[in-house]
Amino acid sequence: MSVRRPMPSGPLRAREAGREQGRSDPRGEAPVRIERRGSGRRVAAVALAAGLGSIAAVHGWGRWLQMHGVRMRVNAPPLTGNVDPRLSWWSLPSLAVAAGALGGADRVARSLPWRRLMWATFAGAVGWSAALAAWDAGAGFTRSASSAVDYLAALPSIGDVGSFLRSLVAETSSWPAHVQAHPPGMVLLLLGMRPLGLATPAWLAALEHLAGAASVPAVLLACREVAGERVARSAAPFLVFSSIAITWSSADAVFLGVGSWAVASCVLATGRTGSWSDLLALAGGTIWAIAMFLSYGIVLLALVPAVVAWRRRRLRVLGVAALPVAVALGLAALIGFSWLDGLAATRAAYAQSLARVRPYSYFLFANLAAVAVCVGPAVWAGLARRRSAARLLAGGALAAIALADLSGLSKAEVERIWLPFLPWVVVAAGGALADASRGSRRAWLGAQLGWALLVQAIVLSPW
Predict the structure, then answer these.
(1) At the N or C end, where does the chain have fewer CB atoms within 10 A?
(2) Which residues of the chain have pLDDT under 70?
(3) Going by C-beta distance under 8 Å and a sequence separation of 6 or more, which residues neighbour residue 313?
(4) What pLDDT does residue 38 have?
(5) CA separation for the pair 81, 249 (Å, rounded)
(6) Is 120 left (phi over 0), alpha (psi -120 to 50) or beta?
(7) Is omega for the bond preceding 78 within 30 degrees of 0, making it cis?
(8) How much is the mean pLDDT over the chain?
(9) What is the DSSP string of 189-211?
(10) Rounded to whole angstroms, how far apart are CA atoms 256 and 428?
(11) CB burial class (10 A; 0-12, 13-18, 19+) of residue 274?
């Protein structure tokens, strides 16, 4: 027996009702306007040319800067890492997973019962990210976690938690680079894992991949709430088998997983009323509080549920969700860590880091090209094609990316740093292809899979 979801109140109610009736227009409007095949192909061709052209232009610009003495330490512009083409027996798992996905992912996404699909997408995302990491054998999983600049490197220096929290602001430069650049949440998590013997590179890598995969059902739940189940099912294969999984061997995948569930809870709250809405908003706010103690920049992700709440005229959800965040920030300040002081200290440390020799004008464009590499060609085409309600989610994420880019606080490495924003952009592919033929969806999924494998084969990432 299926339980019917509560319909949201406000102007989206009629639109979502329209989505439940077969091949209705994704915006819930009548009559249905079918995009002509020739027009859709032209738009897709232009989007592909623009995406590839921008990546090539930024790569050439970066190489030119390096040839003229700018030492950016970005050796595969616009991506961090090195251009290192490689193919070995360790490549076979990802090739096998890609072949299986191309053969059956769309059919599974369309036919599996919704609850089982959520578990299937989680399992599929774990398998895909693990297969991509295995391209570089064991180092593909633990390279980042074993780094001297990562979180585990800080644990031997920590005795008293209170002293650590106070010194994180007062003596920022004394900690490894990733600890300097973030609130204390990740270090505190690893300190909790240490007595259990789990504070090791291997266990941290497992946590990262599991948390990254947990983002997929969260994003799909939010997509279903906003755009309807048909669009969410269309987006599922693109979320599971995305090239963003290449960077899941980093702690930012943990931030991705936590942030995704914070957004999903708040988005679900906008589609309900009364106590259910408040409970979901409080749950979302509690998860937001956890996310804010993992990453400073993740606060921009709040633009995604904010756009939905504004569109649905449910701004009360944002106010309710803000309550647990305010309480958490206040309690943290009482025990020795001020979030705002920590952000200011991080900005000061960043200004004295490698960022001082990385030109703002270049990375203003290079960061966006790196995002294009991460999301893949189907998403470029999806953003350029017919509008759908899934664009609400993508629009909020793109606004967050634009603000982060303009801030100048993320010069390079955004394939890792902006990881929490990227799945919300990927859903645009689902909205654009929801009414496409099976052959068309399969072709675009093949393009996504091939793109991910190509990037993994050419670029040796530090994550």
Answers:
(1) N
(2) 1-39, 386-387
(3) 10, 11
(4) 59
(5) 14
(6) alpha
(7) yes
(8) 89
(9) HHHHHGGGT--SHHHHHHHHHHH
(10) 18
(11) exposed
Give the sign of the dihedral formed by CA 341, CA 346, CA 349, CA 355: negative
Beta carbons of 390 and 430 less than 8 angstroms apart: yes
CA angle, residues 329, 331, 335, in degrees to nearest 5:
115
Structure token pair of residue 394: 């993508």
Q: How far apart are CA 385 and CA 144, in angstroms?
A: 37
pLDDT in tens, 140-195: 999 999 999 999 999 999 988 888 888 888 888 889 999 999 999 999 999 999 99
pLDDT at 6: 47
Report yes or no: 231 and 390 within 8 Å, Cβ to Cβ: yes
d(CA 384, CA 46) in angstroms, rounded, equals 9
Integer CA distances (angstroms), 431 to 226, 247, 335, in order: 11, 25, 46
Residues contacting 298, CB < 8 A, separation 6+: 255, 259, 291, 292, 420
Per-residue DSSP letter, 77: T
Give the residue from 165, 142, 143 showing the smallest Cα distance to 154.
165
Q: Residues 53-87, buried b or exposed e (16+ Cβ, 10 A)?
A: ebbeebbebbeebeeeeeebebbbbbbbbeeeeee
From the list 212, 244, 243, 140, the residue with the least C-alpha distance to 452 is 243
Give the bridge partners for 79, in sequence order: 76
Left (φ > 0), alpha (ψ -120 to 50) or beta: where does 216 sit? alpha
Reported as type and span, the H/E element at residue 216 is: helix 201-227
Distance CA 188, CA 163 (A): 12
Q: Which residues, at least 6 apart from 124, have a Cβ–Cβ distance to it below 8 Å?
A: 101, 105, 216, 240, 241
Q: Residue 410 is encoded by which pair of tokens? A: 């993320």
- Burial classification of residue 161, based on how many CB atoms lie within 10 Å of its CB (0-12 exposed, 13-18 middle, 19 or more buried): middle
The Cα angle at residue 257 between residues 122 and 72, in degrees rounded to 5: 120
Task: Name the residue type at position 144.
Answer: S
Report the distance separating Cα 169 and Cα 176, nearest Å: 13
The dihedral over CA atoms of 82, 383, 394, 296, expressed in degrees to the nearest 10, equals 30
